[in-house]
Design brief:
single chain, 347 residues, alpha/beta, Rossmann fold, 7-stranded mixed sheet, two-stranded antiparallel sheet, globular, Methyltransf_34, 25S rRNA (Uridine(2843)-N(3))-methyltransferase
């Protein structure tokens, strides 16, 4: 394997001193961002490197995937096994680090009712087959194990494409001790451990179009789930079919248990086109989501049509950056990530 290059950054100052704002307008304090150790970040992207070997991929295949993504032909971009490996190895590592930071940012909200001896924390990641959520959860659990040794996660990754093989490779990388060079020092060999043991993070993959997911199956999937994520997925669902996306959110609302959370991460400034009385108009994704979950008033305990609002918004940030830290190394360039984040709690 050729030597890795430093990750791509920006000329802006790389800082982790920004804050995440609670949704409450009257909040006097902001949630300080806990940092993710650099060595853990490196271990997370090493999993992609070792499992998917981006530096050994055909450049012709890489260009084919880029072309399909540029033309937004996602069926083609995710239509071949080698395409999935290219995508997961090139676009998922930086997102995994960004998502890991997100989990750290919001953990005081989503874990506030979890006890030290609780059952496994169940997570459903809709659109989560490409590995970013998978490895981010692994990194997050690694951190939490140092605080709550009994903490375990069962994650269901649901996606329209056939990511089974990628999931298997990444899970093996997460739970297997990495190979070291025969020239590695004794100290390196002693410190070389798997990110997690296989009983701490259990992952299942379901190939399913979320927009055609039967409500009965949604109910079965989320009945005991504590966290549902839609990460860089919701706006694509809205763009595909707004009515079906609204139906999906309604099914999640009716099936998720009180005290569970919905975490949405997407591109900032995302808009979706809505047709009303034959006239098309673009609305911000955030506005559509709040309207669906919180109603026109956007107030906790309010009324949405004839229904009582059962969600409260606990975190929102319309635009923030995750910047790759200096010192991280990967065989190919990765990019910083800008996103919006919204967290809702089922009442």
């Amino acid at each position: 394997m050729p030597p890795a290059r430093p990750l791509k950054g920006t000329k802006a100052k790389l800082t982790n001193n920004s804050t995440l704002k609670p949704a409450s307008k009257n909040a006097k304090e902001e949630l300080e961002r806990p940092t993710v150790p650099l060595d853990l970040q490196q271990k997370c992207i090493d999993i992609f490197r070792d499992a998917l070997k981006p530096d050994e991929q055909s450049q012709a295949t890489v260009q084919e995937v880029k072309g399909h993504l540029y033309s937004r032909d996602f069926a083609a971009a995710f239509g071949k096994e080698e395409y999935l490996h290219v995508y997961a190895s090139r676009w998922s590592p930086s997102r995994a680090l960004g998502y890991l930071q997100v989990f750290r940012d919001v953990q005081d909200y989503i874990l506030r009712d979890e006890g030290a001896e609780a059952d496994a924390f169940k997570v459903l990641c809709i659109g989560g087959g490409a590995g970013a959520e998978h490895v981010a959860l692994a990194g997050w659990v690694n951190i939490l194990k140092g605080i709550v040794p009994a903490f375990r996660v069962h994650a269901q990754l649901l996606d329209i494409a056939s990511w089974d093989n990628v999931v298997t490779h990444l899970q093996k990388g997460i739970t297997t001790i990495p190979e070291l060079s025969k020239y590695a020092s004794a100290a390196s060999k002693e410190a070389n451990t798997a990110l997690l043991s296989d009983d701490v993070l259990r992952v299942t993959f379901t190939q399913q179009n979320a927009l055609d997911w039967p409500p009965s199956e949604i109910a079965a999937a989320v009945h005991e789930t504590k966290l549902v994520t839609l990460m860089f997925t919701l706006n694509e669902l809205y763009a595909t079919s707004l009515p079906k996306t609204q139906a999906l959110l309604k099914s999640l609302t009716s099936s998720m248990q009180p005290g569970s959370f919905l975490l949405v991460v997407d591109s900032p400034g995302s808009y979706s086109t809505v047709s009303i009385n034959g006239a098309e108009k673009k609305y911000p994704m955030q506005w559509l989501l709040d309207l669906t979950l919180l109603g026109p008033s956007g107030e906790r305990g309010g009324v949405k049509g004839d229904e009582e609002v059962v969600w409260e918004k606990v975190v929102e940030d319309g635009s923030r950056w995750f910047r790759l830290r200096e010192g991280l190394r990967y065989p190919i360039e990765l990019e910083n990530m800008r996103f919006q984040i919204h967290v809702y709690r089922k009442m």
